[in-house]
């Protein structure tokens, strides 16, 4: 089948569900993955034909997209901060906002390029934050914590795939007994977390493909105590950050001031609330006094 004819089928089946530009992007991602052809090639070779076995892969992907399964889960992989990561429905799909957080941390710590830094990522999921920081900050000794055994398995595989050394720990940050011995003799220069922060009341704002596929354990939090993870992590940071150590968060855009206040009353200064590229308050940083 001609590739351009297959592209028309994608639009016929999917334009009623997704934006047309997004549908085109789905097709070109399939072109790159299944046929190893860059999208510009079709402009040069409009008669390019896709083999029957490859066509089946496209059509299977099309069917999954019709049921609004995220294409990252269909492929089993995604890219984050110029690295490849395996993903499944046991971990969140890494997002642009989190890339912005990683970039902020890297820029804040580039001056330490000759010093040994200890970094902890709490709620690591796929390992995208921890692995990206270990790759881009010289002499960083990176630890990553998660409560999910399945998530940790994926994160460990991602570290091995990218040939990056990260120490992974299974623990629940809300239960000190699960991590106390691991961190008793370690003080960190940087702690970062992208914890669950979407309130149940906000589910109506979440797209169906997220609600139906991504792990609710990593997404949602009770309406009546939406900052429970931030409170626990801040207390952990008070006890385990070095003086002048930095704490970074990805946050709920609707709770920016409330989360910022938690840092300000907990012995942190130089507190900064930052917007992402979509103009939402998504990132927060504080320095331990």
Q: Can you tell me the CATH class of the largest domain?
A: Alpha Beta
Q: Got a strand count?
A: 11
Shape: elongated
Major sheet: arrangement of strands: 5-4-3-6-9-11-10
CATH superfamily of the largest domain: Vaccinia Virus protein VP39
User: What do the pLDDT scores average to?
Assistant: 93
Largest sheet: 7 strands, mixed
The first-to-last residue Cα distance is 64 Å
What is the count of structural domains? 2
Helix content: 40-55%
SSE topology string? HHHHHEEHEHEHEEEHHEHEHEE
Q: DSSP strand (E) fraction?
A: 15-25%
Q: What is the architecture of the largest domain at the second tier of CATH?
A: 3-Layer(aba) Sandwich
Supply Rg. Answer: 21 Å
Count of helical stretches: 12
The CATH topology of the largest domain corresponds to: Rossmann fold
Class per helix and strand makeup: alpha/beta
Task: Point out poorly predicted stretches.
Answer: none
Q: Which short descriptors sum up this protein?
A:
289 residues; alpha/beta; Rossmann fold; elongated
Descriptive overview:
By secondary structure, this protein is α/β, with parallel strands linked by helices. The protein folds into two domains: 3-67; 88-288, Rossmann fold (3-Layer(aba) Sandwich). Helix content is 40%, strand content 21%. The strands form three sheets. Strands 5-4-3-6-9-11-10 form a seven-stranded mixed β-sheet, sandwiched between helices. It has a two-stranded antiparallel ribbon with strand order 1-2. Helix 7 links the parallel strand 3 and strand 4 (140-146). The mean pLDDT is 93.
